[in-house]
Design brief:
Layout lengths: L16 E4 L7 E4 L1 H5 L1 H12 L9 E5 L2 H13 L2 E5 L9 E8 L2 E8 L8 E9 L3 H13 L2 E10 L15 E6 L1
Parallel strand pairs: 3-4, 3-7, 7-8, 8-9
Antiparallel strand pairs: 1-2, 5-6
Family: Belongs to the purine/pyrimidine phosphoribosyltransferase family.
InterPro entries: Ade_phspho_trans (IPR005764), PRTase-like (IPR029057), PRTase_dom (IPR000836), UPRTase/APRTase (IPR050054)
GO cellular component, one term: cytoplasm
């Protein structure tokens, strides 16, 4: 059990692991599993993501499948708000809204329950890594289609070399726990 009085791992970025050629050759994957396995490091990473929202938390945190679920649920708990999943197709049991979007190597679809959020609810969108930004931007569009107000999108890691921030819609603030 994590001792709330113990110091958190201040250097949580040191717990990230690079995995070369995953999921395909030429990709340097940022693996967050060592961070998740370290209670103090994970707590520090969540504290980093929560800091801007402590004074005025959103109605809910929305996490993108799958690692956005891990971070989003922990962040929602830290902020004392609900968690809403945005999933890949066919994973939600009730009526859903869906949005198809293009990827650099094909297309994909995101879904969420039609009744997941009240109209106009301020939400914080969370994912693990900002690479090209396509999935995060699609999730913003899906939330806006649902009627939510996306106050910001937040990622644990932003890969600056992929220049997603330059293509980002400035209407929605974009926050990163770590920019590399």
């Amino acid at each position: 059990m994590l001792d709330a009085t113990a110091p958190v791992q201040a250097d949580w970025p040191a717990l990230l692991r690079d995995v070369a050629d995953f999921p395909r050759p030429g990709i340097l994957f940022k693996d967050i599993t060592p961070l998740l396995a370290d209670a103090h490091g994970f707590a520090a990473a969540i504290a980093t993501l929560a800091a801007p929202w402590r004074a005025a938390p959103p109605h809910a945190v929305v996490g993108i499948e799958s690692r956005g679920f891990i971070l989003g649920a922990a962040l929602a708990q830290a902020l004392g708000v609900g968690f809403v999943p945005v999933r890949k197709p066919g994973k939600l049991p009730g009526p859903t809204l869906a949005l198809d979007y293009a990827l650099e190597y094909g297309s994909d679809r995101l879904e969420m329950h039609v009744d997941a959020l009240p109209a106009g609810a301020p939400v914080l969108l969370v994912d693990d890594v900002l690479a090209t930004g396509g999935t995060l931007q699609a999730a913003v569009a899906l939330l806006q289609q649902q009627g939510a107000h996306v106050v910001a999108a937040s990622v644990l890691i932003e890969l600056s070399a992929l220049s997603a921030r330059q293509r980002w819609d400035a209407q929605v603030p974009l926050l990163a726990g770590l920019v590399i």
